[in-house]
Every structure is written in structure tokens, then in C-alpha cells.
Amino acid sequence: MKCSICTAHAAFCKSTAVAHYYARAFRAITRIQLGFLDCHLYSPVGTGEDGYHFCGEKWLKGHFVKLNSNAGFVNEADYSEHSTIAQAFSHFTFDQSNGELLVVDLQGICGGDETNPYFLLTDPQVHSRGAFERFGNGDLGEPGITAFFQKHRCGEWCQRLHLRKEHELRAATHIVRMPGVPDCIAYLLSDCRALFSQMTSGKGVSFVSVPREANNDWLEVRMWATERAGARATEILKKKVEGFYDKTRLLVTVEPVPQWDVCRGTPSCRLGGKRLEPYWFPFHLIGKKQGL
Fold first, then answer.
1. Is there a contact between 65 and 117 (Cβ–Cβ < 8 Å)?
2. Backbone torsion region of residue 172, taken as left when φ is above 0, otherwise alpha when ψ lies between -120 and 50, otherwise beta
3. Three-class secondary structure of residue 163 per DSSP
4. How far is the C-alpha of 274 from the C-alpha of 195, rounded, in Å?
5. In whole angstroms, what separates CA 232 from the centre of its chain?
6. E strand or H helix at 229
């Protein structure tokens, strides 16, 4: 029992250690004072000693602000400039880890002004994609990463840091194949704003990629979404493609072709102004004396 409890508490320390690592890199590039409190794991020592495992940090005094969460929440009401930088920091961790880790659940004390902001944060959470071990129960993995990018909108700091987009760092979660027909692609793109708005309404879809040209017999529409939202967006897209073929489908009445006969099969043509008729060669079947 103690071992499992120790592992659960150790996950908090590991998340903080990862946050420290990327905060140092972020400070070196941006010169923004963003840091985290140290987190320590305390355990009983000695054989037969009673006690329990727990994590501890220094007391953080001041006005506590939650800037984002591990479930996709983004604070857009308070400390707007600090919140913008915090979201860029989370995106920065994803970019620097090549899409394997995302540090979220940013909360703590914020201060300074727009020209010289500072952050002292506590108890972060890391989402991981599998290249590293899990970071406790708060590590929501792929769904947690998708939830962040579904809400996140890159701003000035993301652009300054040239942070790569989610779809540049991880494979699509949903793929819909469609015929490589130029008119069908043009049909989708002509109403793309309304279509994408319908597909991404609600929560769970962070990005949709539609081919711009028919360079193959079959093309792929790629989506980055949670399982439920991706399934819903897939159905919307399929209905849209079916609508295109319903509009462009033509019914053509074809007359039945008469059965082939000798008269229809007799060729006739002209060569040098002369009509050429077929010449039939007699063919005698020669067999043995006793047979045919």
C-alpha cells in the first residue's frame, strides 16, 4: 500500500521537475520571470516506523490565480497578459518536447506589469503521449493534449517563439478518405467556414486539414480531435461529401443494345472511293477416314 501511495505522490514531484526544466529554457529565450516552487517527497525512514508519504512545498503567499487546467480550461477573464504568456508557455513545452509532453494546470502568484511580468507557480500537471512514463492520475494523455489545443489560440508569444502547431507534431486522430475529385474539393472549400464551424462546434476538435488539390485517386481529410468529437465531425463530413454527389449525380437513360448477329457483324467500309464488301472463305473440315 505504501509503495502505491509513494508512486502517486512522486508523480506530483515529477510533474514539477519537468515544469522546472522547461521554465528554465523559457526564461532563457524570453527573459520572462516564470518559475515553479520546488516540490519534495517526504517518506518515513527506518524499519517498523509508523508514518505516511506526502509532498510538500513552501508556503505561497499572495493572490492565487489559476491560468489554465489539465482539462482544457483557460482563464480569459483575469490577468489577461499573464494568461496569454502562460498559454504560450504550455504550447512551448509541447513544441520543445516534439509533441510528447504538455505542461498545464498553471496556477500561482502573478505580478509585475506588461513590460516586466513575473510568475511563481505551483502544482503543475504534465500530459504525456507514451514516450515517457505517466505522470499520475492527472495525466490525461492524448485527450488532455487535444483539450488544450481545442481551446488554445496562438498569440504574439507563440508567433515570436515560432512554435509548431499541434498537427505538425502529432498524427491525426481521425482520417476520412474521399475520392480525389477536383469538383468535390472545390465544393468543400467553397463553404469551408460554415462546414468547419459545424465540425468544430462544441468541444473536442482542435484542427481539420482538407486537401487543396486532387493529386491522387483518393485523398484524406485529417482531424485532430477527441474520440467522441472526432466521430461526430466525421459523420458531418461524410454527409457533406454525399450531398455533393447527390447534387451532381445525373440519370441517363440508355437504350438496350440489340443482340449481335451476322448482319450487324458484317463490316462495310470504303477505301479510295470503292466500297469493300467482306469475302467469305469456305472452310472444309478434313478428318480421318473413320471419322469426320
1. no
2. beta
3. coil
4. 65
5. 15
6. helix 227-248
SS3 78: coil
With 0-12 / 13-18 / 19 or more C-beta atoms within 10 angstroms meaning exposed / middle / buried, residue 53 is: middle
d(Cα 166, Cα 95) in Å, to the nearest integer? 8
Cα 19 from chain centroid?
24
Count, in order, helices (H) and strands (E) of the chain: 9, 13
For residue 73, how far is the Cα from the chain centroid? 18
Q: What is the pLDDT of residue 249?
A: 74
Domains and CATH numbers, the chain: 2-169 (3.20.200.10), 174-248 (3.30.1370)
DSSP H or E run through 83? helix 80-96
Q: 44: Cβ–Cβ under 8 A, 6 or more apart, which residues?
A: 50, 51, 52, 53
Residues of the chain with pLDDT below 50 are: 1-2, 291-292
Can you read off the three cell numbers belonging to residue 196? 468547419
| Residues contacting 70, CB < 8 A, separation 6+ | 104, 105, 125, 127, 138, 139, 140, 144
How is residue 51 written as a grid cell?
A: 508514518
Return the closest-CA partner of residue 172 out of 216, 217, 140, 220: 220
CA dist., res. 119 & res. 28, Å (int)? 15
Confidence at residue 208, expressed as pLDDT on a 0 to 100 scale? 86
